[in-house]
Design goal:
The structure holds two protein chains of two kinds. By secondary structure, chain A is an alpha+beta fold. Chain A contains five helices and twelve strands. In chain A, the strands form two sheets. A six-stranded antiparallel beta barrel of chain A has the order 1-2-5-4-3-12. In chain A, strands 6-7-8-11-10-9 form a six-stranded antiparallel beta barrel. In chain A, helix 2 crosses helix 4. Chain B has one domain: Arp2/3 complex 21 kDa subunit ARPC3 (Orthogonal Bundle). The C terminus of chain B is likely disordered. The chains are: A alpha+beta, B mainly alpha.
Chain lengths: 299, 186
């Protein structure tokens, strides 16, 4: 069944050895000249094609965005607006949406005192679907380096893990490999926000682990980044999400809570890479005002 | 002629995979893998050594193109071994195409899906060996199954045309049963 000529076997052995050598070379910490050169070459091919596909796909994306926002409640409203919308080009509409996202992003950057480079998310799914990463269309040419914070108008997106000349790979905060130092709104209590669920914790996109077991945490408390030494990989004060369920796990050494991300990871578009952190910790000033007034009116 | 056309189509598949398929907003993580679909077609119509070379080259191209989230060589290793094994099994048992020499769409789709599942298992296994924290049992099973089914579904559009094209350009050598294929041909 597995008969084969010795030459063919030798060829296979050479290829397997080569692949394993590359694997070992690339998985060592630090960058390697061989693999970096290969990635630069790959990027050289990828960038123009990805830009072309982006241009060609924009009407389709616009159509899909249009379909997604449809809901029973809005039908009447949409019918009223239909006459106006017909006149609007779909492409113009997506530009508007992007401008809005960009506005929000600049608002967040202004509040926190972050210096950002804006970018657009290019791909979403990775080769085999394990890692939660996106590719963005800026790179070292625009001053982007690995271990920089990535934000959008709503809050923390992730951090740059790989930067080429004109593209960069961003590991999202929801990736299982991601751990972000976090601080609770209003208090100095600190913890770690992990992507995905932790063992023994609830099923979640983000899980918060507080170091202090005694800390009272309530659902609805918001979480911001604590900030790392010299702002790498995370700058302080970026909203991460809202605590929505606290788990009381017997035997757990830290308090575990499920966190709803501030960012809608399903529809990432315009993002910003923080190239220069703020001079002072912005504390809670980046968080949007609480929607308490509205609730007060209703009750 | 056959080699040039194959090279061109496989390169197009790799580019389309990384720029278009990876861009699709798929909710369940894994998507169809055009690269596996193309490599299967090559492996079914060539020698094991050539299939291994094709799998290695295609896998390395996927490793190099963004997003660079896994170590270089991981996909190349898996795809190289998968293509070699498939070509060897096909050559020595004639599993696909023994009946009348022309494999049906179903057989090709099944072979592609099984290969995709094998590649998925291999990729996850390397992840486990290298201590990749993202590979857990549940995520691996879901990814492998979804990836295999989707790849099998697109194979009538990717694997099958390339297979037919390679058979047509080979001048009828593949219409005979196994073992009579001229060795060393691309």
């Amino acid at each position: 069944m597995f008969r084969d000529s010795p030459r063919s076997r030798l060829f296979l052995a050479v290829l397997v050895t080569l692949a394993v050598a590359l694997l070992v070379l690339d998985s060592r910490p630090g960058s390697d000249p061989v693999t970096s050169a290969a990635r630069v070459g790959g990027e050289f091919v990828f960038v123009p094609v990805a830009a072309g596909v982006g241009w060609a796909a924009s009407p389709v994306t616009a159509l899909r965005e249009g379909m997604r926002s449809e809901s029973a409640e809005r039908v009447a409203e949409l019918e009223k607006a239909n006459a106006d919308l017909k006149a609007q080009l779909q492409a113009a509409r997506i530009d508007e949406e992007r401008a809005e996202q960009l506005d929000e992003l600049l608002g967040l950057a202004g509040l926190g005192g972050y210096e950002i480079v804006t970018a657009q998310a290019v791909t979403r799914v990775t080769a085999r679907g394990y890692a939660d990463t996106v590719t963005i269309d800026v790179g070292t040419d625009a001053g982007v380096r690995p271990d920089m914070t990535v934000v959008n108008g709503s809050g923390l997106v992730g951090r740059v893990t790989e930067a080429g000349r004109r593209t960069a790979t961003v590991t999202l905060a929801t990736d299982v490999d991601s751990a972000v130092g976090a601080r609770l709104e209003g208090s100095r209590k600190i913890g770690v926000v992990n992507g995905g669920s932790v063992p023994g914790g609830p099923e979640a996109a983000l899980t918060l682990r507080l170091f202090d077991l005694e800390t009272p945490v309530e659902a609805g408390t918001r979480v911001v980044t604590l900030g790392s030494h010299e702002g790498a990989p995370f700058v302080p004060g970026v909203p991460i999400g809202t605590v929505d369920q606290v788990q009381v796990a017997p035997g757990e050494l830290s308090r575990v809570a499920r966190v709803t991300p501030a960012v809608d990871f399903a529809s990432l578009d315009v993002v910003g890479v923080v190239v220069q952190g703020p001079e002072r910790d912005p504390r809670d000033s980046v968080l949007p005002p609480r929607p308490e007034e509205e609730e007060g009116d209703r009750s | 002629m056959r080699a040039t056309a194959t090279l061109f189509l496989v390169a197009v598949a790799i580019i389309v995979q990384t720029t278009v398929v990876n861009r699709l907003p798929l909710e369940w993580g894994a998507g169809p893998d055009l690269v596996i679909a193309m490599v299967v077609a090559v492996a079914l119509t060539t020698t094991p050594a050539a299939a291994a070379g094709c799998g290695f080259a295609a896998g390395l191209a996927v490793d190099v193109l963004p997003p660079a989230e896994h170590a270089l060589g991981r996909y190349a290793l898996v795809l190289c071994l998968a293509a070699y094994t498939l070509a060897l099994l096909h050559r020595n048992t004639g599993a696909v195409g023994a009946l009348g020499g022309r494999p049906s769409v179903w057989a090709v789709a099944g072979t592609t899906a099984v290969t995709a599942a094998g590649v998925g298992v291999g990729y996850a296994a390397i992840g486990l060996l290298m201590g990749d924290p993202r590979v857990s049992l549940i995520s691996a099973v879901v990814n492998i199954l979804v990836g295999a089914v989707l790849t099998g579904l697109i194979s009538p559009l990717a694997t099958f045309p390339l297979l037919r094209m390679r058979e047509a350009l080979s001048g009828g050598e593949h219409t005979t049963i196994q073992g009579l294929v001229s060795p060393g041909r691309w």
